[in-house]
Design goal:
Elements lengths: L4 E3 L9 H8 L10 E3 L22 H10 L1 E4 L7 H14 L6 E5 L17 E7 L2 E5 L23 E5 L4 E4 L5 E5 L3 E7 L19
Bound molecules: fe (ii) ion.
């Protein structure tokens, strides 16, 4: 069982803006399945050349404008860098579950976070990489309503945790614990969701790292 906690300076240099820009310039990596855009209210279209192996990859000028306007997160990124891969492995080993890495970017402080206060169906470990984010966490919701997962909640109790996360800081948020992230500056963070207790699969991501 994952317990709520906050650790200052837990892991430095997990991911930088520079490393992220390298990744998002690799067009084949920016498949529409991997790029999750919150509050997108328009259809995004682009042209492909005859050489594009995957027609569902978003070109860089669109990624750029979405990054400037909206909250974006990239899923299936647990092998994006060696540090992220290694970090995911430590969590897999500690909790015995499958772990992904979701890279969150918010560069527009004017927009309201689309999730607001909400709870998830998976345990999460979140590492702040760049900028500052305020995180509030409230005590576990009981009973859990399936319909409420990932929807905005109105919280009237005091949070059990209220912290400003700076680069290197990490927070552990168990499933069904409402939480709210408010970007105080442009921010980059990586969230590591764990598969549920019920999923007892012994399959693990191959964490070997190729060096040549
Ligand atoms: Fe969440």
């Amino acid at each position: 069982m994952l317990e709520t906690k906050f650790v200052k300076g837990y892991f430095h240099n997990l991911l930088s803006w520079d490393e992220l820009s390298y990744l998002i310039n690799i067009r084949p990596l920016m498949s529409s399945k991997r790029v999750q855009i919150l509050n997108l209210d328009k259809r995004v279209e682009w042209d492909n050349t005859i050489w594009n192996a995957d027609l569902n990859c978003i070109p860089p000028s669109i990624i750029r404008s979405l990054l400037d306007e909206l909250v974006i997160y990239f899923v299936d990124m647990s092998r994006a860098t060696r540090n992220i891969n290694d970090f995911a492995k430590t969590i897999e080993d500690e909790y015995g579950r499958q772990v992904d890495a979701h890279i969150y970017v918010c560069r527009n402080l004017e927009i309201e976070h689309p999730f607001g206060a909400h709870y998830d169906s998976s345990d999460n470990v979140i590492v702040q990489c760049e900028g500052m984010t305020n995180f509030k966490v409230w005590d576990e919701v009981k009973p859990v309503s399936r319909d409420e997962i990932n929807t905005k909640l109105l919280m009237d109790s005091e949070p059990i945790l209220d912290v400003n996360m700076e680069p290197g800081d990490a927070i552990w948020i168990p499933k069904h614990y409402p939480h709210q992230a408010t970007s105080l500056t442009s921010r980059l963070s990586v969230s590591f969701p764990l598969s549920s207790n019920a999923d007892t699969s012994s399959v693990r991501e191959d964490r070997n790292w190729i060096t040549l």
